[in-house]
UniProtKB/TrEMBL annotation:
GO terms for molecular function: DNA binding; DNA-binding transcription factor activity. InterPro entries: LysR_HTH_N, LysR_subst-bd, WH-like_DNA-bd_sf, WH_DNA-bd_sf. Belongs to the LysR transcriptional regulatory family. The gene is benM_2. It comes from Halomonas lysinitropha. Residues 1-58 form the HTH lysR-type domain. CDD domains: PBP2_LTTR_aromatics_like (cd08414). PROSITE patterns: HTH_LYSR. Keywords: DNA-binding, Transcription, Transcription regulation. This is HTH-type transcriptional regulator BenM.
Length: 296
C-alpha cells in the first residue's frame, strides 16, 4: 500500500467515478483503475462496488476512506513540520549571555532580530557568567553562549570573535573619585575594592589579574560580589569601588559613575560566541548567521 494509491482511492471515493477521479489526479483512466485494483489485492478485500453509473464504497472502502484521509493529512503535517525544522523555522535554541552584556546594543539587537525573524522558535536566553556557560556548553544543556574565552581554540566548541571590550573604573556617585577622577591605578592602592569570585568566571578573572601584575598593581579587596550587577550595587551603596568591563556602562546604574583610565583601557577583553561543534540544529545556525550579520 502506497500513499500514491491512497490519494487515488480518495479521489475515486469523493467523485464516485473512475473517469472523474482520473481527471482530478491527472492520470489516465486505465492506470488509475490498475492502481485501485492493486490496492484491493494488497489489502485482500474489495473497496469499490462497480456499477453502470459509477462506483460506490463497500463497508471496507468506507473504513479505508476515513483512515486514508487522516493518514494523508498527518503525512502533510509531518512533512511541513520536518521542513520547518530543517530550515530552523521551528524548534528550540538556548543562549547564555554574560549578565554584563545583556544591554550591549549589538547583543540586544541580536536577541530582538532573532525573536522577530523566527517567531515559532522557542528562544531561551539565560543570564550566565562565563564559567557556568562553558560548563553547560560542554555538557550539552546550552546551545550557544556569549562569553569571555582565553582563546579561539576550545575543545569540542566552535567559536566566533564578537568584539573587543576593555575595563573601566566604577565609583560611587558621591565619592571623591567621581569629582576628582584618578589618572593612574597607583592612586587607588589604598582604596576599598569590591571584587568578583574567580570560580564564576576564571578566564575573565585571570586576564584581569595578569594585566594588573604587569602594571604591578594589587587591588585591596574588602568585599566580594557574585556578578557585575551585584558588584555595581555594592559600589552604588558606597561599599567600595570596582573594576568592571566597559560593557557595564551600556546599562547605567543609579549611584554609579563609570570612569576611563588608560591603564584599564589597554586591557583587551575579547568577547566570543561559542557553540558545540556537534550541534547541527538549523535553528542554532540561523542564530549564528544573524551574529555574522550584526557583528562584522
Amino acid at each position: 500500500m502506497e500513499f500514491r494509491q491512497l490519494s487515488y482511492f480518495i479521489a475515486v471515493a469523493e467523485t464516485g467515478s473512475i473517469s472523474a477521479a482520473s481527471r482530478r489526479v491527472h492520470i489516465a483512466q486505465p492506470a488509475l483503475t490498475r492502481q485501485v485494483r492493486l490496492l484491493e489485492e494488497d489489502l485482500g478485500t474489495r473497496l469499490l462496488e462497480r456499477h453502470a453509473r459509477g462506483v460506490s464504497l463497500t463497508v471496507a472502502g468506507k473504513a479505508l476512506y476515513d483512515e486514508a484521509v487522516q493518514l494523508l493529512d498527518r503525512r502533510t503535517r509531518i512533512r511541513t513540520r520536518l521542513s520547518a525544522l530543517g530550515q530552523g523555522l521551528i524548534g528550540k535554541v538556548s543562549l547564555g549571555v554574560t549578565v554584563t552584556h545583556l544591554w550591549v546594543p549589538e547583543v540586544a539587537k541580536l536577541l530582538r532580530r532573532y525573536r522577530d525573524r523566527y517567531t515559532q522558535v522557542a528562544f531561551e536566553v539565560f543570564p550566565l557568567l562565563s564559567g557556568p556557560q562553558l560548563e553547560r556548553l560542554r555538557e550539552g544543556s546550552l546551545d550557544a553562549g556569549i562569553l569571555y574565552l582565553d582563546s579561539a581554540e576550545q575543545p569540542g566548541l566552535e567559536t566566533r570573535l564578537l568584539q573587543h571590550d576593555h575595563l573601566m573604573l566604577a565609583v560611587p556617585e558621591a565619592s571623591q573619585w567621581a569629582t576628582e577622577p584618578p589618572r593612574r591605578l597607583s592612586e587607588l592602592k589604598d582604596a576599598d575594592f569590591v571584587w568578583g569570585f574567580r570560580s564564576v568566571s576564571p578566564v575573565y578573572y585571570d586576564r584581569v589579574m595578569a594585566h594588573f601584575a604587569r602594571l604591578e598593581f594589587a587591588p585591596r579587596v574588602v568585599q566580594y560580589g557574585a556578578d557585575n550587577i551585584t558588584i555595581l550595587s555594592m559600589v552604588a551603596a558606597g561599599l567600595g569601588i570596582a573594576i568592571v568591563p566597559s560593557a557595564s556602562s551600556a546599562h547605567p546604574m543609579p549611584g554609579v559613575r563609570f570612569l576611563l583610565l588608560d591603564e584599564l583601557t589597554s586591557c583587551d577583553m575579547p568577547l566570543w560566541m561559542a557553540w558545540r561543534s556537534s550541534n547541527d540544529s538549523p535553528a542554532l545556525h540561523n542564530l549564528i548567521n544573524l551574529v555574522n550579520e550584526i557583528f562584522r
